[in-house]
Design goal:
189 residues, alpha+beta, 2 domains, 7-stranded mixed β-sheet, two-stranded antiparallel ribbon, 9 strands, 42% helix, 23% strand
């Protein structure tokens, strides 16, 4: 998950050296550099950790991304961020930390993604519960089927006993007494 833009409150400093458009190091008073995010910095597509700041001379503005603090008096920056143009700035011009449209839009997008992830996890939980309920219902149905089958077997056994009793009664009626020895042999008197 991306760390993204790091924020500090009320951070601003005056440049102590001029800045040309090709420069990537901004020199500031040491006391001011320590107010900016001190890292760790990473800049790649998967784990960005940096701080956005704006350079201004009071009329023109340029958004920069602070990607390192190489010394106590300088910041390393990526110039011309979020559609701004690398400009020249003079001693005394200001570098300040502020929210930018892109950082706020990214933040909002991250919230939407997080909300979607939470919704997806909730839906997965609901599906898992439904599967568990289905498994329970299936087990209850199987138990019910076993019970029904046992009842049917009992009914069938009872029917067979009734047939055997009727058969024995018929034999007894026709022949008098019926004797069954310990081996199961049937004889009549």
């Amino acid at each position: 998950m991306a760390i993204g833009n790091n924020f500090t409150n009320n951070t601003q400093a005056a440049l102590i050296e001029p800045l040309i458009p090709a420069a990537t190091t901004i020199n500031l008073p040491a006391i001011e550099v320590s107010k900016f995010f001190q890292g760790p910095f990473t800049v790649d597509d998967n784990a960005d950790s940096w701080q956005l700041a704006t350079l201004t001379n009071g009329t023109d503005y340029e958004i920069v991304r602070i990607v390192d603090v190489p010394s106590t008096t300088s910041l390393l920056v990526d110039r011309a961020q979020e559609g701004t143009v690398a400009l020249s700035f003079s001693i005394g011009d200001t570098l300040f930390v502020t929210s930018t449209a892109e950082s706020l839009n990214k933040f909002r997008a991250d919230i939407v993604i997080a909300d979607a992830s939470i919704l997806l996890l909730d839906q997965q939980r609901i599906l898992m519960q439904a599967q568990a309920d289905l498994n329970t219902t299936s087990a209850v149905t199987q138990d019910s089927n076993i019970s029904t089958n046992a009842s049917n077997i009992s009914t069938n056994a009872s029917g067979i006993l009734d047939i055997n009793n009727n058969l024995i009664n018929s034999i007894v009626t026709a022949n008098g007494a019926v004797v069954v020895d310990p081996n199961g042999n049937v004889t009549t008197n």
